[in-house]
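Q: Got a minute? One more chain.
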Amino acid sequence: MREILKVSNIVKRFGDVEVLRGVSISVSQGSIVSLLGPNGSGKTTLIRIIAGILRPSSGEIVFRGRLASFLPQEHGLFEELSGWDNIMFYARLYELRDDYAKRRGKDLLERLGIIGHANDPVAKYSGGMKKKLSLVIASLPDADLLIFDEPTTGLDPLSRQVVWELVEEEKRSGRAVLLTTHYMEEAEKLSDYIYLIYKGSIVAEGSSEDLKKRYAPESVVEIELYKDISRAVEILREEGFKSFVENDIVKIFSENPREDVPKIITILYSKDVYVKSLKVAEPTLEDVFIKLTGRRLSEE
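A: Always. Here it is, folded:
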């Protein structure tokens, strides 16, 4: 895929404080790239530099598209105007036809559940409604690159799902999406490629599966048996599985549970040891982040 954005060795200082330390990322056409990290890690500063709002202290940014659209974390809405007036104001800045802007805006307002408030002054909107209206405006133009800074913060779970669907639709249309998030499940669900950022530096990068394969601990297969717990552990150890018992649950470490689970069940069944229940606790991006930084994504 064609590279549409290349960010090279970005450094940003505020006085004596260095908040970005040589950050480099790349975004390709038709892909979703996430910057995943806790609050205060430098995500928004980097996004604001890419959007042209801040100047870097050093480094280079190359954008190879026609147009980029930006959804900031803090809205840029005119609160004395209605939702519709805000949409049409920005549509004209983008030089969009009124009929297209109204049709596209109506579709997005309906999907995000705020069409009934479109004629109300934005000053009466809740924080979540303002976030949704900002997303509508950022999604209006036919942009090559969509830059979304924490697009689902402050939204309820149902609205978050709708936003995810919209982001995936943008990808299917061939656009590139760069988003920041501190939600592990958001990055894991949406992203083709993830940059883990911490204290102004990229600490790891890759697809979700690649990051977990390289950095996360092994999966744990947890089995509840009808009986013969100690015997089951002995059988599995003889077959080369690292297993132990905890609270009457047999636990087996596995690097590839998709392959190992059928083998484990077959081995136990052949020895007349029967499984009552089984589940796999697979590693997450949270586990990866903890291993690399010693802290959780959700910590403030």
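A: The chain has a mean pLDDT of 93.
Q: Perfect, thanks.
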